[in-house]
Amino acid sequence: MNCPYCKNEMEKGLIHSPHELNFIKGEKRKFMTASFLHDDSVVLSKLSYLKGSATIAYNCPECEIIIIDYKNGKNDLNNK
Ligand SMILES: [Zn+2]
Hints:
mainly beta; 3-stranded antiparallel β-sheet; 5 strands; binds zinc ion
């Protein structure tokens, strides 16, 4: 994947967490972040008690931008 800003090749990797990874709209920090508490949240990776959670991401160190393709990332990671 190429960076949409500088067009350089991006580094493929994983974002890991010991908790569920999710996106919640807005800029206000939340104390309780479980997706079932937020109707409009996007779950990037469900929690596995053995492996934690992880999602594929692409990093551009030049622009300091990380892109998460959560549609295709879930499928790629489930096959590993
Ligand atoms: Zn870039």
